[in-house]
Specification:
Elements: H1 2-21, H2 28-31, E1 38-41, H3 56-65, E2 68-75, E3 81-83, H4 90-93, H5 104-107, H6 122-129, E4 135-139, H7 147-156, E5 163-167, H8 170-179, E6 185-189, H9 201-208, H10 213-216, E7 220-224, H11 231-238, E8 244-249, H12 252-261, E9 264-267
Parallel strand pairs: 1-2, 1-9, 2-4, 4-5, 5-6, 6-7, 7-8, 8-9
Antiparallel strand pairs: 2-3
Helix pairs in contact: 3-6
């Protein structure tokens, strides 16, 4: 009797576990077009050459080489989408301001990394790329507001070109599942419990282990290569054959491993091929 109870508990746990990590299977054929795609991380940038990350110059450099482009989106105080990675302007612009608390007019005059390049709008990037290469768009969602999802979808409705949405925030992925299911979506993750962050530890644990997939049902996983292997990524890739993107590949060995073992590569090649 005791063994039977243990077996029942194990079976229930297994079912709940698989339910939690299951991705969406219905769009696997569409994901095939992105297999072996190399995405230039924040564009093909090299600050030493005057080409800062997430700049129009970096995107032009990626386009000239035929690379896909990974970008980051923030929503400004006045509801505009801008392409920038960090939460504040400190690292790239030398000022402590928070992106979401500034207007687009204020941001567009900020210089990136001491160059003449400025923070681009999402519209400008879409116009530049024009569907020539795939876009991998990370949504920055620092609080509970999901307005950035609505704004991003509105812009993408008028864009003709291959693109993928991804975010660490599963609620953003859920928004696209409910409101724009035709757009391919990915769950971003890494070893989120390693360092103290503002989000609750339990939430970080759940996303780290992809246990929130039951909400977003992602089409692909995007994981930090330095934090692999991890069991749930292995299961999704090798048993359920879900595409996995890895980041950020910035050494020859990492790039080699990313190409050999995973489906999409998010890379940086600093000081090369310029």
């Amino acid at each position: 009797m005791f063994i039977l109870i243990l077996l029942i508990i194990f079976a229930v746990f297994t079912i709940l576990y698989l339910f939690a990590i299951f991705p969406r299977f219905s769009r696997k054929r569409e994901m095939l077009q992105y297999r072996h795609t190399m995405f230039a991380h924040r564009g093909y940038h090299c600050l030493a050459r005057g080409i800062p990350e997430n700049s129009m110059a970096a995107f032009r450099a990626a386009l000239s080489r035929g690379y896909g482009i990974e970008i980051d989106l923030h929503l400004t105080r006045d509801g505009r989408l801008v392409v920038f990675h960090d939460d504040t302007l400190e690292r790239m612009c030398g000022r402590p301001d928070i992106i979401e608390q500034m207007t687009y007019e204020e941001l567009k005059n900020c210089r990136l990394g001491g160059t003449s390049e400025t923070i681009p709008s999402f519209e400008d990037v879409l116009s530049l790329v024009g569907g020539r290469v795939p876009l991998l768009i990370e949504l920055k969602i620092p609080d509970s507001s999901l307005l950035i999802c609505e704004k991003t979808y509105h812009r993408l409705q008028h864009y003709c070109g291959p693109c993928l949405i991804q975010s660490f925030n599963t609620m953003g992925i859920l928004w696209f599942r409910l409101n724009a299911p035709h757009i391919l979506r990915g769950q971003l993750s890494s070893n989120l419990t390693r360092d103290p962050l503002k989000e609750a530890w339990l939430l970080r644990f759940i996303v780290k282990h992809l246990l929130s997939n039951f909400l977003g049902r992602p089409d692909f996983i995007s994981y930090n290569l330095n934090d692999l292997p991890i069991a749930n990524v292995w299961i999704l890739k090798h048993i359920f054959h879900i595409p996995v993107a890895v980041w950020t590949l910035n050494t020859p060995d990492m790039l080699k491993k990313g190409k050999q073992c995973f489906d999409m590569q998010i890379f940086e090649k600093q000081n090369e091929n310029y």
